[in-house]
Design brief:
Largest sheet: none
Number of helices: 8
Oligomer: single chain
Structural class: mainly alpha
Strand content: under 5%
Shape: extended
Order of helices and strands: HHHHHHHH
Radius of gyration: 21 Å
Length: 138
């Protein structure tokens, strides 16, 4: 059972239509012994469908509210923290449904800045550091 749990971690992050026959077999065994895992997986896939659907922010909010109710009915504390985060950042999250844009490019740039800063072993002269960043990444 430990081996099935360890080998199914990646599988549970994918949608069912992408599973191989071996992965499907493992997951069926896993869901048989852990029905709460099956419920959590179906909730995660429902949330994925909401974000993949091309809908307006108001429809998205309605669907997410229905999803919140299903999560609360499940009674799992891990998903409750997701709900809390979503409710705290609802306006920002709903912006995704307006433009279908994420902050991935900003996160990638922040990662490059951190790597550059660690290669320079810190920053002593801030103006020169910004000058170097502009020359390298602008």
């Amino acid at each position: 059972m430990r081996q099935i749990l360890a080998r199914s971690k990646h599988t549970l992050m994918m949608s069912q239509n992408k599973w191989t026959d071996i992965q499907r077999h493992r997951v069926n065994i896993l869901f048989k012994y852990y029905p709460i895992l099956k419920a959590a997986y179906s909730l995660a896939m429902e949330l994925r469908k909401i974000f993949n659907a091309k809908i307006s922010p108001t429809k998205a909010m309605g669907r997410m509210n229905k999803w919140y109710e299903k999560v609360m009915a499940l009674g799992n504390n891990n998903f409750r923290s997701v709900i809390k985060t979503f409710k705290n950042h609802a306006p920002t999250i709903l912006n995704y449904f307006r433009r279908r844009a994420t902050n991935a490019s900003a996160e990638a740039f922040n990662s490059k800045v951190k790597i550059f800063r660690s290669q320079m072993r810190g920053v002593r002269d801030r103006d020169f550091f910004i000058f170097r960043l502009v020359k390298l990444y602008a």
